[in-house]
Design a protein that fits this description.
This protein is α+β, with helices and mostly antiparallel strands. The protein has three domains: about 70 residues, no CATH class; about 80 residues, no CATH class; about 55 residues, no CATH class. About 40% of the residues lie in helices and about 15% in strands. A three-stranded antiparallel sheet has the order 6-3-7. A hairpin with a 2-residue loop joins β4 and β5. α6 crosses α8.
Length: about 240
């Protein structure tokens, strides 16, 4: 359909949405909601001089060379106070997206190289290594200041090392059994459903763990414990033993 559509600048999209009573909430790509992670310092200083919100977003696109957006809009938004935002974050649940020792504390972003291997970030990862937990639980397990733990948690979420998940678990056994039956076939699905929500990409390194736990090939490393923390496998009996049925 390339001959029948025209790309729109963010200012045009926001104007069209406003005519329908819709207001922008933020980007569906989490990291793009943090200027400090995607815009260089000189660019952020320039953006601070632009008072018009739509013009600021257009300038931001030029600064980070962004040509495609995935934004969320809502009707009649209610702005949260700082206290409400803090309470919602504290009650929200989070989970690691990969085993603890596979977390990399550095990333390349549009603003340059990002290093976040501070004590607070490592404390968050340690607290989540046994399974999903709320921010309040993570803070309670750490001697560090809550604001530092929260800031590091948000950075870890922005780079995909940590995921926001549901607080209550749901059974995904039937779904994952169906997925496992398809593995290796023409209609295979390379993701597993998680009890607390979202889906985990199936890594080749631990494919055997879910297809047939007694025939896993190669080094599975920390994956058995990680999958157990998400309730996808029983807890491993020992560091060199495969989990049983």
């Amino acid at each position: 359909m390339n001959a029948n559509w025209d790309a729109l600048c963010v200012t045009e999209v926001r104007s069209e949405m406003a005519s329908m009573g819709l207001s922008p909430v933020g980007s569906a790509t989490l990291i793009e909601n943090f200027d400090s992670l995607v815009v260089r310092r000189t660019g952020r200083r320039m953006l601070d001089t632009i008072s018009n919100a739509s013009a600021r977003e257009l300038a931001r696109d030029f600064l980070i060379n962004q040509s495609f957006r995935r934004h969320v809009y809502t009707r009649a938004p209610r702005h949260l106070s700082a206290k409400e935002r803090r309470q919602l974050l504290r009650s929200s649940t989070f989970a690691l997206s990969r085993p603890r020792r596979a977390i990399k504390y550095r990333a390349i972003t549009p603003s340059g190289r990002l290093n976040y291997g501070n004590a607070a970030a490592r404390a968050v990862v340690a607290a989540l290594s046994d399974g999903p937990a709320s921010l309040a639980e993570i803070v309670a397990a750490s001697p560090l200041a809550e604001q530092d733990v929260q800031a590091s948690l948000l950075v870890l979420c922005a780079v995909g090392a940590v995921w926001p998940v549901e607080s209550r678990a749901a059974s995904v056994a039937a779904l994952n059994e169906a997925i496992c039956r398809r593995l290796g076939g023409p209609a295979e699905i390379r993701h597993l459903g998680l009890p607390h929500g979202t889906a985990l990409p199936i890594e080749d390194a631990w494919l055997g763990l879910v297809a047939d736990r007694n025939k896993a090939k190669g080094k599975t490393g920390d994956w058995p414990k990680f999958l157990a923390s998400h309730r996808l496998l029983p807890e491993p009996a020992g560091p060199n033993e495969m989990p049983g049925h």
